[in-house]
Amino acid sequence: MPQIIDGKRISQEIKDELKEKVAALKEQGIEGTLAVIQVGNDPASSVYVNNKKKACEYIGIGSLAYELPEETTEEELLALIEKLNNDDKVNGILVQLPVPKHIDEEKIIKTISPEKDVDGFHPENVGNLVTGGKGFVSCTPAGIIQLLKRSNVTIEGKNCVVIGRSNIVGKPMALLMLRENATVTIAHSKTQNLKEICKQADILIVAIGKPRFITADYVKEGAVVIDVGIHREPKEVDGKVVSKLCGDVNYEEVAEHTSAITPVPGGVGPMTIAMLMNNCVEAMTRE
Ligand code: NAD
């Protein structure tokens, strides 16, 4: 039987640790505030923003929510970011992505002060990740490192295959595994012989964005499998169509061949917000 890596429990553990840290910082007179900016009213983004506000409340830091209309101009958004960059009470700034098409995402990311970039997307923070310097790390990959460590999975010396090379998951994930002394291969949409490459992995991290793509024939017997994908699938239950979550891994088929695996939901998903809170607490104490 594989170990089911419980992201719900581990994320709760992290949030409880942070709550204690925040209480201790408060006693020293250090308070924290995260500013969350949402442009437009995409329902999925609204859910994420709301969850972030709730997490701030839970660990005991403040949150400022800016809900801007869809037609907000790039100049207006940049001006708000600059204002928050210069506000000493705000230690973290986050712009919920994606932003509407008329706004240049890269420009937005670059305008957030690297010291307040709790998403870890600013090129200065990405650069620090590459060179081994201090800086904020993208939350989902940072959460996966915590899942592995807190589940007693050895990373050092292991063959790790990361499928996906996005700026928010695949690339920082590969760099973090390298930092933990794994031997890392990055696979992507142009990779040839994907199955053979995946079969070499002691730790297989899947961030492709395709439901149930990874089947048992991609997985070495006894490997650790981390599924980053999140998809909503319609499913019929008692004659009613309900929506069910699934990942990039065909869990039912793959799980029995692994030594440890993350489920969807309840695996990687809950870790992202926990690590965002971790970055917010770090932002409170950064020199
Ligand atoms: P993305 O679309 O930006 O990147 C997907 C990557 O997969 C690309 O680099 C591409 O080269 C690779 N790819 C696509 N098809 C492939 C194929 N057939 N073979 C090999 N590689 C292939 O996606 P993303 O933002 O990195 O997200 C990936 C998945 O993770 C999505 O399902 C997303 O919803 C999910 N996600 C989850 C969380 C979380 O908190 N759990 C956070 C971010 C993303």
What this model shows, in words?
The chain is of the alpha/beta class and 287 residues long. It folds into two domains: 30-115, Leucine Dehydrogenase, chain A, domain 1 (Rossmann fold), CATH 3.40.50; 139-268, Rossmann fold, CATH 3.40.50.720. It is built from ten helices and eleven strands. Strands 1-11-8-7-5-6 form a six-stranded parallel sheet. Strands 3-2-4 form a three-stranded parallel sheet, with helices on both faces. Strand 9 (231-237) and strand 10 (240-246) form a beta hairpin. Helix 6 packs across helix 10 (269-285). The longest helix is centred in the first third of the chain and has 21 residues, at 7-27. The radius of gyration is 19 Å and the shape is globular. The model has no long low-confidence stretch (mean pLDDT 97). The site of nicotinamide-adenine-dinucleotide has 23 residues, from helix 10.
Briefly say what this structure is:
With 287 residues, this protein is of the alpha/beta class. The chain is 40% helix and 20% strand. It has helices at 7-27, 43-59, 74-85, 105-111, 123-131, 139-150, 170-179, 194-198, 251-254, 269-285, and strands at 3-4, 33-39, 62-68, 92-95, 159-163, 183-187, 203-206, 223-227, 231-237, 240-246, 258-261.
